[in-house]
């Protein structure tokens, strides 16, 4: 009973993810503080839920064969998350009833599915900083990224792309399952120029991740190897974070700053990762970049998948917060902070 002494956890325990009803009805849980700014997005968001279902019904008052299309808005929110213990080790084997969930401060209407999904298809983007600031470390980045793809990509199931960026973005290889093509693309990248970090993240999520469509649940992740510095972008940090949230993409970052102290770039990498449910890694020497990739590989194989129907979801494009917690306070849940609701079809 020690885990229920915390008042937030005690309230969430009353709305734990029970298998039949989704949540118990004893008490209303308090809404957590919002962790993402609630301002309007710079562009129209993509749906965070599947498109509306359509049904055909006879047109009233007539005998002809014309029909009226009825659109039923049935929202569903997919959520992929990771659970760790106090020592950072991944926790597997938990049940639906071990968690509490609030969507925009409310209990979801229904939990549709809950599984430990180590085998969900992956769509991965490798973003390598090719600016002058990382020239001396670039070879280690290339080698680590190639080894990661060799270990992670599964034939006929996963796909990845490679993008280098300085003041511009270079899509060296679009989505493919071929590790040979991806490796060749990584080897062809060459460092030089300034850094438009936020532009690269924003554009990648908009053009490569937001456009991914699938009838099954997939995991979308971007792995960025960079020092987090930016001196050329036209968009701001919050714009980049919001675009990742619209694209429902987890961002992992590996810092190339190996100095003893963290700088502003490292803080940027941390904020970007935390807002999207990812994680930032800070190697103490450049050769340890590979360890960051290895940790990401392990995490991708230790994740849970949850799909639920939110309560009172309006088609207004607003940002809705997600608050997911383990009822056992020994465990820490890492998930994206929210999503943008869809807008009505035009």
Automatic annotation (TrEMBL):
<feature type="domain" description="VWFA">
    <location>
        <begin position="123"/>
        <end position="300"/>
    </location>
</feature>
<keyword id="KW-0732">Signal</keyword>
<dbReference type="InterPro" id="IPR017802">
    <property type="entry name" value="VWFA-rel_acidobac-type"/>
</dbReference>
<feature type="signal peptide">
    <location>
        <begin position="1"/>
        <end position="24"/>
    </location>
</feature>
<dbReference type="Pfam" id="PF00092">
    <property type="entry name" value="VWA"/>
</dbReference>
<dbReference type="InterPro" id="IPR002035">
    <property type="entry name" value="VWF_A"/>
</dbReference>
<protein>
    <submittedName>
        <fullName>Uncharacterized protein containing a von Willebrand factor type A (VWA) domain</fullName>
    </submittedName>
</protein>
<dbReference type="InterPro" id="IPR036465">
    <property type="entry name" value="vWFA_dom_sf"/>
</dbReference>
<feature type="region of interest" description="Disordered">
    <location>
        <begin position="29"/>
        <end position="63"/>
    </location>
</feature>
<feature type="compositionally biased region" description="Pro residues">
    <location>
        <begin position="30"/>
        <end position="53"/>
    </location>
</feature>
């Amino acid at each position: 009973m020690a885990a229920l002494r915390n008042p937030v956890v005690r309230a969430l325990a009353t709305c734990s993810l029970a298998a039949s009803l989704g949540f118990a009805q004893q008490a209303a849980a308090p809404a957590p503080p919002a962790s993402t700014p609630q301002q309007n997005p710079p562009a129209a968001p993509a749906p965070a839920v599947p498109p509306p279902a359509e049904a055909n019904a006879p047109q009233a008052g007539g005998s002809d064969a014309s029909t009226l299309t009825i659109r039923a808005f049935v929202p569903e929110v997919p959520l992929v998350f990771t659970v760790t213990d106090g020592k950072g080790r991944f926790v597997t084997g938990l049940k639906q009833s071990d968690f509490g969930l609030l969507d925009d401060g409310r209990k979801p209407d229904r939990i549709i599915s809950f599984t430990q999904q180590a085998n969900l298809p992956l769509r991965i983007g490798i973003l390598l900083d090719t600016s002058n600031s990382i020239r001396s470390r670039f070879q280690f980045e290339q080698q680590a990224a190639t080894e990661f793809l060799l270990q992670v990509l599964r034939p006929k199931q996963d796909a990845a792309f490679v993008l280098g960026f300085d003041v511009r973005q270079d899509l060296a290889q679009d989505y493919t399952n071929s590790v040979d093509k991806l490796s060749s693309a990584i080897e062809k990248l060459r460092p030089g120029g300034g850094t438009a970090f936020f532009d690269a993240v924003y554009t990648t999520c908009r053009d490569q991740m937001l456009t991914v469509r699938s009838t099954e649940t997939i995991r979308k992740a971007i792995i960025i190897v960079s020092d987090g510095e930016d001196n050329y972008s036209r968009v701001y940090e919050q714009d980049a974070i919001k675009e990742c949230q619209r694209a429902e993409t987890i961002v992992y970052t590996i810092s190339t700053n190996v100095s003893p102290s963290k700088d502003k770039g490292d803080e940027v990498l941390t904020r970007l990762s935390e807002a999207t449910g990812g994680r930032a890694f800070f190697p103490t020497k450049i050769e340890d970049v590979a360890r960051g990739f290895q940790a990401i590989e392990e995490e991708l194989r230790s994740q849970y998948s949850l799909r639920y129907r939110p309560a009172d979801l309006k088609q207004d494009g607003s940002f809705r917060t997600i608050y997911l917690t383990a009822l056992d306070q020994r465990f820490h849940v890492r998930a994206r902070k929210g999503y943008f609701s869809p807008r009505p079809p035009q």
